[in-house]
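Hello Y.,

Per our agreement to keep a running log of every chain we model this quarter, I'm adding this entry. I've kept the format consistent with earlier entries: sequence first, then predicted structure.
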Amino acid sequence: MNTAINFSHILGKLSIIGVLPAEDRAIRNSKNMLVYLGILMSGGGILWGSILLFLGLYGQAYIPYGYVVITFFNLLYFNYSKRFDFARNIQILISLMLPFALQWTLGGYLSSGIVMLWSLLSLFGASIIKRGEGDFWWFIIFLGLCFFSYFIEPYLAYLRPELLNHDISTLLALINISCITSIIFYLSKMFLRKNSFLTDSNGQLRRTQKQLSQQSKMLEQSNFELLRYQRRINESINAAQTIQQAFLPDQLTLQSTFEEHFILYKPKDIVSGDFYWMHKLDKKTIFIEADCTGHGVPGAFMTLIGNAVFNQIVKIEQEYDPASIMYKVDSYLKSILQQELTNNRDGMDVSVLVIDEKEDELDIDFGGSYQRMDYYVDGQLHTVRGSRKRIGGIENPNKKFETSHLTLPKDAVIYLYSDGLIDQNDPEGKRYGSERFSNMLSCVADLPLKQQKVVISNSLKKHQQNMEQRDDITIIGLKYAKSSVLTAN
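Predicted structure for the entry above:
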């Protein structure tokens, strides 16, 4: 048992000579066979050297011992340089040449016991180590050396030592044949075991590849289905976008009321949770900007509810006070969404702007839910803050909606906006911020409103860069018409 363990340990040590960690199994096996060939033939060299020393043939003993020395340094060089091609060619060459050289110094075929049979190991090694690449030429060299030895046999008779009589030569031939066949048998078994392992591995690899191929086809099918579903979903969302755009105030309505205006409307997804609403009655204009909970499809559903609620409260119930409008919107949302039963917290932040046109000025009523209104008059930007009470969800009942009243000249510029731009991050995670936004409005407020939109949009792009948009963005600039045809809807 200990002998077997030690032998396995020795093979394990030999199997790492010249091997690189990332090499595949076939290359490692070829390198292992190179080492085993050198070690086994070195054993033969020691055997032959010892026999020749015993017979007193000291000069001839240098040849097999020389083989052992050259093999040692070749394998040592191979272990450190990892130059497999060079090491295997040297090993095959000396394994092929030295048995013939020893045979010639011993007087030829018969007297040496056909010691050139050891060269058969070089052919066997060439076939395995080089994996069929160039082994034919080593075979041709072997045959050439055999014919050459045949032709020079008569001229080598005088080199035959007297000790190598018929009996000893026969004994040497028996030793050579026994050793060579044993070694070839051993190497063949070892090669077959390794090849069997590779065959099993290749079989497993083919099975794995087949499984991967099947899985790949399944993934392709799944991907096709996902793409099909995605296309259908996108088609549905695009249709929803068309519906959402339809209930937003159109350009003709806006242009008939405001001398100038801009609307920067950037949904995070295709549809938006932000929207704006407008109604005009005689000289009174109600304009609402709303930011619903969520974005994308959920937010868009809330905008549909919000649009319907504003129509009910303002157009049908004719409520024009911002605070009263917000109270009613809050009540309707809680009822529609059954928030007391479902604990649903969805809602919206709104800015409600009621403009009553007088002869030379505008009476403004403003109410906000977590939003504010900015206005620009006489070179100054001013802010009217809304209530800190949210519409919808569960809020502190002690908080109240309030209406702020102010009078503005007709050339005042009014800004309503959601928090989408203010909360947008740059690549370093820094928000755009409300202070920066206010400073920008102060800088651009004297420009035409269409140009203001371009400047604000460029500022957003410069800040955002390659970062994903975090939320829906809505910014609205309004400048009331000085001369309009005022008609009731």
